[in-house]
Amino acid sequence: MVLLGVNIDHVATIREARQGIEPDPIAAAIIAELAGADGITAHLREDRRHISDRDIKLLKQTINTRLNFEMAATEEMKAVAIDILPYAVTLVPEKREEVTTEGGLNVIRQKEYLKEYTKELQSHGIIVSLFIDPEFEQVKAASETGVEYIELHTGQYAEAFNTVEENVAFKNLEQAAAYAIELNLRVNAGHGLNYNNVKKILSIKNIEELNIGHSIISKAVLVGLNTAVRDMKNILDSF
Ligand code: PXP
Asked: Catalytic residue at 153?
């Protein structure tokens, strides 16, 4: 069974459009859990454009499932993580000008840094995952940092879905996942997944959890969050 991590950043994005108090991502997290989410994912960005420090703290105190804290590998974020002690940290690259996380981490370039960074988080009992593109060299470098998990970036596949490039993008994910398992890494995946393109991803062996945000929150705007999460959970459970 593949687990569903619901990314609630987009709820906070709507709140920040008015810099007010609604909708509250904490309420969204509770509804997502009641609808069957196996975990809640939130990204505290350097510029605090959606999730705030208050949100991440309250999420940890409120949710009953697992908090996957997405963050950049900075000293500032390390201090936040050690303060709130989420179930897991997923390290992502972050550029201030991007609309969303654009590519995976370049683990090869900062392997030694990430090794030390990971060790410190793990010494506080936090599981660490690296968000990477489905490339063998990145998978190998990730395994050398000592992390427990990688999260494979499905964005390229999502963009290629229903085009001639879909099969190549899919194969890359399949092969990267198989290689990661060989190297004793555990595998999550996410980014750009929706109610259609997610089905093929579920045929990849050994993926433990999918982190899905935009598509679920988009559907929630129209049919409600409870239904949107349940519908996605049903797809994941049907494979
Ligand atoms: N996984 C990671 C590492 C992400 O950065 C994001 C986007 O914040 C997601 C999953 C979810 O992507 P989407 O919102 O496109 O479903």
From this structure: no
Q: CA 107 to CA 115: how far, in whole Å?
A: 10
Closest ligand 1 atom to Cα of 101? 5
| Dist CA 149 CA 177 (whole Å) | 11
pLDDT average, residue stretch 168-187: 98
Q: Ligand 1 centre and the CA of 92: distance in Å? A: 10
Q: 70 catalytic, yes or no?
A: yes
pTM of the model: 0.96
Per-residue pLDDT band for 210 (boundaries 50, 70, 90) equals very high
- Right CATH number for 3-234 from 3.20.20.70, 3.40.50.170, 3.40.1390.20, 3.60.10.10? 3.20.20.70
Count CB neighbours of 170 within 10 A: 21
Q: Measure the CA–CA gap between 89 and 84, rounded to whole angstroms.
A: 11
In the predicted structure, residue 62 carries a pLDDT above the cut 90: yes
**What are the pLDDT digits (tens) for 69-109?**
999 999 999 999 999 999 999 999 987 666 666 789 999 99
Task: Pick the residue whose CA is nearest to atom 12 on ligand 1.
Answer: 191
Q: What's the rounded Cα separation, in Å, for the pair 147 and 150?
A: 8
- List residues near ligand 1 (CB under 6 A): 7, 9, 43, 70, 90, 92, 100-101, 131, 151, 190-193, 211-215
